[in-house]
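User: I'm writing a tutorial on reading structure tokens. Could you give me a worked example: one chain, its sequence, then its tokens, then a sentence or two explaining what the tokens reveal?
Assistant: Sure. Here is the example chain.
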Amino acid sequence: MDNKIKRLKEKGVVLTIQRMAVLEVLNNSSNHPTVEKIHKKLLRKYPTLSLATVYNTLQVLRQAGEIQELNIGREKRFDPSIDPHHHFYCRGCERIIDLEISCPIAQKGSIDGHKIESVQAIFFGTCADCLKKGKDNA
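And here are its predicted structure tokens:
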């Protein structure tokens, strides 16, 4: 998180208490939370924090390149990891799981003369936990 804070300061982003709190929730989360889930978690400590403040903070962090906004499933989700990686979306429990898969095309840096800046693949299916519970949605 220290690196994110340093980069945000270098980009001129003012680090308010609210922004630091949102960043902390994201960095301590591995489940790619929605705006509402982040807000609900922060309300315990900051009861006057508005949903709009959380949303605006997430947009500032996204525009600064310090988080990813994912449009997977029914709601926007947020990922604190900006390193290139793919995702698995479980249709059963709607969980998003980070996948560390090497993409040979992305490693080349270009395709058919086009420069590749980022690659994001989403795999859809049923996670191992749902399969164990017999919740195969296939």
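What the tokens reveal: The helical segments are 2-10, 17-27, 35-43, 51-63, 104-108, 128-132. The chain has two domains: 2-79, 86-132.
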